[in-house]
TrEMBL record:
Transmembrane helix recorded as keyword: yes
InterPro entries per the UniProt record, alphabetical: Na/Glc_symporter_sf, Na/Pro_symporter, Na/solute_symporter, Na/solute_symporter_CS, Sodium:Solute_Symporter
Function: Catalyzes the sodium-dependent uptake of extracellular L-proline.
Record membrane topology: Multi-pass membrane protein
Organism the protein comes from: Alteromonas sediminis
GO terms assigned for molecular function: L-proline transmembrane transporter activity; proline:sodium symporter activity; sodium ion binding
GO cellular component term of the entry, any: plasma membrane
Predominant location: membrane
Reaction equation(s) it catalyzes: L-proline(in) + Na(+)(in) = L-proline(out) + Na(+)(out)
Biological processes per GO annotation: proline transport
Source organism phylogeny: Bacteria, Pseudomonadati, Pseudomonadota, Gammaproteobacteria, Alteromonadales
Compartments where located: Cell inner membrane; Cell membrane
Transmembrane segments: 6-22, 62-88, 123-144, 156-178, 184-202, 223-244, 273-292, 312-342, 363-383, 389-413, 420-440, 452-472
Keyword Ribonucleoprotein: no
Protein's name according to its UniProt entry: Sodium/proline symporter
């Protein structure tokens, strides 16, 4: 019965891809941004679903299971960051990217912000996107592989392959419109699942007291968590919210929304959806650790607690629907990441630096080839079943947040930002994150990321690099000032 539900889900996703193929793949603008005519409802759920991915149903409940209430601070940081993203970035990015020669990608916008001579900025940003998104995509494929292994007993590597084939298929067919529409459907499924599972799981206890007593056998109480909280730990958790400003697969949704006026509608829908789902994910992890302690069951991988609940507590037909929610979360993010990676590979590297200009149909074909290529590399990285979903996501999230977050904010709010400052900030942010993750510079060979979340030093140093170089760089850039002034004027008229 579960396989039937999963099969029906796959069919629906592919049908949406076929629908989008007929509607919006005539040129690159349609394929990559849906013609900038996406409704606020689809924008909100598409941004949310592509943001949360498999870590919402597997990684975050697993973090709550292992870390206890420390995971709540990550959730708070994410909610605040998402709200700030809607308020500070969404309306301005929608206008700025259109004024800047109708830019279709983030690297193209950064280049057009300073004129055609800023090709180095476009190239470096495209490389950063491809590198970190390949890592990010592999995290989604790991979630898919764990789902098939844990729920159906299917070989992990085969599960990774099946997940990739389905996502690549509808992304290749329908581009941005297919990704957005499937994200909308997937967002609805995720919403229902994260309400149903923790509520039904809680019914296995006589009340809050029994559940809390069982949970506290493994995790600290709220009071103990607060007493043991350090300033660095709190900053590291809340700093997850800083990542939103620099996530290309999320902010590209703001570029595609039909109007600036529609942003407020999307914000209200998106934040409501996010609040409910993130509370549901935390509740799943909390009830999960209580249930495991009460029953004495063995759970080798805490990130599979959602899957365990769906298998134990529900009818097989409902189980199939709930497992489809995990696939929905996984696929919504993978498809978005594949499309953004492919757009950078084709639009920002191949097409921009190629001597031969491709026509509309050939450009779409090249974009599809990019989707396929990035997917294959991500699959190879995901073949190791020991990978942690949350670990992979946290590294990629920090990389994007530090490399692009400060730069996006400065691009939208600072008239004095220069090309050299933008390039310096982006490189400093990306290099700092990589250094913090991999360089064993502390006592005992520990890395900086073992002490503080790497996005914190990355975001700070990137911001300082942009600010200081902007002060020192006296080169005038009339193009940058014109784009800023015209965008500000249009924004004041529309918003």
């Amino acid at each position: 019965m579960s396989f039937i539900s999963i099969g029906l889900y796959f069919v629906v996703m592919l049908c949406i891809g076929l629908f989008a193929y007929r509607k919006s793949t005539s040129d690159v603008s349609d394929y990559l941004l849906g013609g900038r005519n996406v409704s606020p409802q689809v924008t909100a759920l598409s941004a949310g679903a592509s943001d949360m991915s498999g870590w919402m149903l597997m990684g975050l409940p697993g973090a709550m299971f292992v870390m206890g209430f420390d995971a709540v601070f990550i959730a708070i940081g994410l909610v605040l960051g998402a709200l700030a993203n809607y308020l500070l970035v969404a309306p301005r990015l929608r206008v700025f990217t259109e004024v800047a020669s109708d830019s279709l990608t983030i690297p193209e916008f950064l280049s057009q912000r300073f004129g055609h001579k800023a090709s180095s900025l476009r190239l470096v940003s495209a490389i950063i996107i491809i590198v970190f998104f390949t890592l990010y995509t592999s995290a989604g494929l790991v979630a898919g592989g764990k789902l098939f292994d844990s729920a159906f007993g299917v070989d992990y590597q085969l599960g990774v392959l099946v997940t990739l084939v389905v996502v690549v298929s509808y992304t290749l067919l329908g581009g941005f419109l297919a990704v957005s529409l499937t994200d909308f459907v997937q967002g609805c499924i995720m919403f229902l699942a994260l309400v149903i599972v923790p509520v039904v799981a809680f019914q296995q206890f006589d009340g809050v007291g029994e559940m809390a007593d069982s949970a506290y056998q493994s995790i600290p109480t709220i009071a103990a968590t607060w007493e043991g909280l350090t300033l660095i730990g709190l900053i590291s958790s809340l700093a997850w919210g800083l990542g939103y400003f620099g996530q290309p697969h999320i902010i590209v949704r703001f570029m595609a929304i039909r109007s600036v006026a529609a942003v407020s509608v999307a914000r209200n829908i998106g934040m409501s959806w996010m609040t409910v789902t993130i509370v549901g994910a935390l509740a799943t992890g909390l009830v999960g650790v209580a249930y495991v302690n009460k029953t004495g069951m063995s759970l080798s991988d805490p990130e599979t607690i959602f899957i365990v609940f769906t298998d134990i507590l529900f009818h097989p037909l409902v189980t199939g629907f709930l497992l489809a929610a995990i696939l929905a979360a996984v696929m919504s993010t993978i498809s978005s990441q594949l499309l953004v990676s492919a757009s950078s590979l084709t639009e920002d590297i191949f097409s921009h630096f190629s001597k031969h200009k491709a026509d509309a149909k050939k450009a779409v074909l090249i974009s599809r080839a990019g989707v396929f290529g990035v997917g294959i590399v991500a699959m190879l990285l995901a073949l190791d079943s020991n990978n942690s979903i949350l670990g992979l996501v946290s590294n990629a999230w920090a990389g994007f947040g530090a490399a692009f977050g400060p730069l996006i904010l400065f691009s939208l709010y600072s008239e004095r930002l220069t090309h050299s400052a933008a390039l310096a900030g982006m490189i400093v942010g990306a290099v700092t994150v990589i250094f913090c993750i991999y360089a064993p510079v502390l006592n005992g060979g520990e890395t900086i990321s073992s002490v503080v979340y790497e996005i914190v030093p990355g975001f700070i140093l990137s911001s300082l690099a942009i600010w200081s170089v902007s002060l020192l760089d006296k080169s005038a850039n009339e193009r940058a000032r014109d784009v800023f002034k015209e965008s500000s004027r249009v924004l004041s008229e529309q918003y």
